[in-house]
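QA checklist item 7 of 12: single-chain prediction sanity check.
[x] sequence parsed
[x] length recorded as 324
[x] structure emitted
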Amino acid sequence: MRKILILLILLAPAALLAQTDTLSITLENVKYPHPVKFINLTAEGQDIRMAYMDIKPASTNGKTIMLFHGKNFAGYYWKDVIKSLTNKGYRVIVPDQIGFGKSSKPFIHYSFHLLAKFSKQLLDTLGIAKTAVLGHSMGGMLATRFALQYPETTTKLLLENPIGFEDYRTFVPYITTEEQYKNELKTSAESVKRYYQSSYFPEWRPEYDYLVKIAAGVVNSVDFPRYAKVSAMTFTMIYEQPVVYEYLNLKVPTVLFIGIEDKTIVGKGLLSKEEQAKHGQYKVLGKQIAAKIPGAKLVEFEGVGHIPHVQIPSKFNSALIVNL
């Protein structure tokens, strides 16, 4: 009995740490850089709510920009970008898309058209008629859809290492949402970090660890199966709803910001090493897509991976401001 008590005492700090690190699937215990508000929406008969930050500058230039996060992220990672933009007088709107971050995680048919509509509803609620849109990763696919769907609202389209430069259906083997759900259930801090290291950053730094901590923190939540299911549903959305064929239809000024060391492929784990080497090459894809978009400007960053605004914040923010 005495040995059991000693063992429990020794294990207590580790158990407490695991409990502390557990995150809810709506990230209630993740601090965002600015106050978070909510807008009520409905989808397929369900009442849901969309989280967002609305940051107004001390001295306004009368312009607005909306930031769309990537699939494995949410509004929390835009801190430095928000500060840079508000310092220049921009009002900054940062939604967590439905299914992500602090927003609801409903079981619905996810589509970029629907997420774009929800984002437009947010702007309408806030009385914003015109905005520039910056989309990173999956947010780049959404930003492209938003600009195609609401060209009269979009003053400028800004794409930061967006996914969707390729039609993944043409080379990534198809798996069902249920199969992807089973894959999502295997998520761990170790698997998240391995993926981020292999795809997102050419060299890992300790300051990136918070991204892993948030992405993996939900794994221990009792609601993680719901989170995993929604993640599988949005994987299917990305796979089945390419935008690559529609870049030539864009009618708004467009700027691409590309870290050329990026090697992101949606469904990368389903490919052989040989197939992986053939795709996700942003040093080539950036130029190819820029050539398809009427009047597009391409800004490339040497030695930079999937998230320029995290890896090189000062350089990225300077380039962003110059091109707004």
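[x] summary fact logged: Strands lie at 37-43, 46-55, 64-68, 91-95, 131-136, 154-160, 254-259, 297-301.
[ ] second reviewer sign-off
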